[in-house]
Amino acid sequence: MDIVPFLIGLCFLMAASWSDLRTREVPDLLSYGLIVFAAAYGLAETIILWNWQPFLAMAAGELAMLLLGLLMFYGGQWGGADSKLLIGLGGLYGLWLGRYALLLYLVVALFAGAAYGILYTAGLALRHRAAFLRKFRTLLREPKVHLTRKLVIGAGFLLLLLAFLLAQFRLLLFVVAIVAYCAFYLWLGVRTVEDAILIKEYPVAKLREGDWIKQDVVVKGERVCGPKDLGISVEQIALLKKLKVKKVLVKEGIPFVPSFLLGYLLLLLVQPFVAAVFSSLL
Fold first, then answer.
1. Secondary structure E strands in 37-123
2. What is the Cβ-side half-sphere exposure of residue 77, based on CA atoms within 13 angstroms?
3. Please, which contacts does 29-34 make with residues 24 or more away whose CB atoms are closer than 8 Å?
4. Who contacts 122 (Cβ-Cβ below 8 Å, separation ≥6)?
5. pLDDT at 279 over 60
6. Is the distance from CB of 200 to CB of 248 less than 8 angstroms?
7. Which one, 2, 25, 100, 194, has least CB within 10 Å?
8. Is 282 helix (H, G, I), strand (E, B) or coil?
């Protein structure tokens, strides 16, 4: 990516990350602004170079990220702002034949997002450690969680026994046993943070479009809103107020846009290394 679109994209992502961390929202001006800038830059390159490739690469990048964004949004993994920012980034990187920058960004952003999510969740657990520990102990006593813990521990001991018997697979089996044990407690920790910290009772007056409702709100036998809506709409908020519903359970999401920024910056470090590896293989 050229220096100009890179710096413009960096500015958009920094502003979006700051807004996401402070307000849990990203203004449409930033999301759509990045999409429009990427499209305009691709069109300008096509006109200046008198070559359709920059515009086609931009359009293909935005279309590919639109499809991925829709998949993540309707899968309940991202909000609308995350998806729209990804479309803009797809346009900036472009989807070129024989180039891998956009794919590499997705891989880097995936690992950056996982690390960021774990650290952010750990920070929430430390900040609200009393509530976290109470809920953690409660979840450990739940029958399904208790059974799963026993199965993981049993499988871990079996893998460690096999590691001592099968010398050629010793390291692999040992690593799998440790990873399985850690993965169980990581899953339990994330669930604890969600149940004890991220699920809150919101006054209807403070609801914003896109908030995730945790439980179905039913008034006079009719469902008004709930988890299946993938974010509450303005019309549903107005209806709740009209029906004089005071409070609803809302699941707060982790501000995820900073992970896009982290992946964007990390790609600067990773891309030269990957390019060197590819050149040595070809």
1. none
2. 11
3. 30/85, 31/81, 31/84, 31/85, 31/88, 32/84, 33/88, 34/9, 34/84, 34/85, 34/88, 34/89, 34/91, 34/92
4. 189
5. no
6. no
7. 2
8. coil
For the entire predicted model, the pTM comes to 0.82
Tokens 């690992």 correspond to what residue? 111
Helices (H), 168-233: 170-193
DSSP 205: G
**pLDDT for residue 72:** 82
The tokens 């809920």 sit on which residue?
Answer: 135
Q: pLDDT for 69-106, tens place per residue?
A: 888 877 766 777 788 999 999 999 998 876 778 888 99
Tell me how far apart the alpha carbons of residues 35 and 92 are, in angstroms, rounded to a whole number: 8
- How distant, in Å, are the alpha carbons of 5, 237, 258 from that of 108? 19, 38, 13
Q: Tokens for 280?
A: 């040595």
94: nearest Cα among 51, 156, 153: 51
Cα separation, 232 vs 248, in Å, equals: 11
Q: What is the pLDDT of residues 133-157, one digit of tens each?
A: 999 999 999 999 999 999 999 998 9
Per domain, the residue ranges of the chain are 3-99, 126-198, 207-251
- Give, rounded to a whole angstrom, the gap between the first and last alpha carbons of the chain: 22
Annotate 87-104 with b (16+ C-beta within 10 A) or e (fewer). bbbbbbbbbbeeeebbeb
Both tokens of 103, joined, read: 């794919």
Q: How far is CA 40 from CA 96, 101, 218, in A?
A: 17, 20, 46
Give the distance from CA 235 to its chain's centroid. 27
| DSSP structure string for 242-273 | HTT--EEEEEPPP--HHHHHHHHHHHHHHHHH
